Amino acid sequence: MKNFNKISVTGTERVELHDKINLTGAEISVNVLPAGTGVPFVHTHKQNEEIYVILEGKGYMTLDDEKIEIEANDYIRVSPSAKRQISASSDTPIKYLCIQVKENSLENYTATDGVVLQ
Amino acid sequence: MKNFNKISVTGTERVELHDKINLTGAEISVNVLPAGTGVPFVHTHKQNEEIYVILEGKGYMTLDDEKIEIEANDYIRVSPSAKRQISASSDTPIKYLCIQVKENSLENYTATDGVVLQ
């Protein structure tokens, strides 16, 4: 497998990156919800932690029994078992990444996994 | 541990999210490089795949023997062993996420890991 893959994602259609850039440790989707709309179901996960990265706009998430406001520059970690749903606000679209990773899969990182060469 | 954590990240200082929002399957850093600057070293990883998400601006990456141009809306997967270095362009800053995940750690995702409740 090539040592890297690159893709440009623009537009408003949902794009799932796993197969497009050969991800092996994550699935990342790029999503846009028009103003006044939301994902039409609540879901949980069996194994995966999700991290939502809010890129543009604002909206809200329901996480179990809590409803929180979200906006650009917010990062939200969600445990596998949490019941979650995300919506745009009534007057503003929202663009976000949803990053799925296996809970507790990261062993080392940065200083303990990186090797500085020069 | 709480079922979710949320943080807002603005400004130009590097922020590492792992400990701030209790990530267990990834480390995510938020980075800004001023125009004309770059990370001052080349590095590889022992175990971790990295995904670079270019949020704003433009620049370039050196990946082993290739130098590629990057700009907002680009997503780049980098294998652990690839020698990598990232820079802003000479006249534009670059803002990006670096997502570290353990290579080959994702087992199921989306339809095979998600559970739709309603």
Largest interface: A-B, 71 and 71 residues
Strand pairing plus helix content of chain A: what structural class? mainly beta
Which term fits the overall shape of chain A?
globular
- Based on DSSP secondary structure assignment, what is the total number of beta strands of chain A? 10
Give the fraction of residues assigned to helices of chain A.
under 10%
CATH class of chain A: Mainly Beta
Q: Please identify which CATH superfamily of chain A we are dealing with.
A: Jelly Rolls
Our count of helices of chain A gives 0
Distance between the termini of chain A: 25 Å
Seen as an oligomer or otherwise, the chain set is: homodimer
Order of helices and strands of chain A: EEEEEEEEEE
For the largest beta-sheet of chain A, the strand count, sense and barrel status come to: 7 strands, antiparallel
Could you say what the CATH topology of chain A is called? Jelly Rolls
Low-confidence parts of chain A, pLDDT < 50 over ≥5 residues?
A: none
Q: Averaging pLDDT over every residue of chain A, what do you get? A: 97
The gyration radius over C-alpha positions of chain A equals 16 Å
What is the element layout, followed by pairings?
The structure is a homodimer.
Chain A: E1 4-8, E2 15-16, E3 27-33, E4 43-45, E5 48-63, E6 66-71, E7 74-78, E8 84-88, E9 94-102, E10 114-116
Antiparallel strand pairs in A: 2-3, 3-9, 5-6, 5-7, 5-8, 5-9
Please provide a written account of the structure.
With 118 residues, the first copy, chain A, is mainly β. The first copy, chain A, has a single domain (16-104), classed as Jelly Rolls (Sandwich), CATH 2.60.120.10. Chain A is built from no helices and ten strands. Chain A has strands at 4-8, 15-16, 27-33, 43-45, 48-63, 66-71, 74-78, 84-88, 94-102, 114-116. In chain A, strands 2, 3, 5, 6, 7, 8 and 9 form a seven-stranded antiparallel beta sheet that branches. In chain A, a hairpin with a 2-residue loop joins strand 5 (48-63) and strand 6. Chain A is globular. The two termini of chain A are 25 Å apart. The model of chain A has no long low-confidence stretch (mean pLDDT 97). Chains A and B meet through strand 1, strand 3, strand 4, strand 5 and strand 6 of A and strand 1, strand 3, strand 4, strand 5 and strand 6 of B.
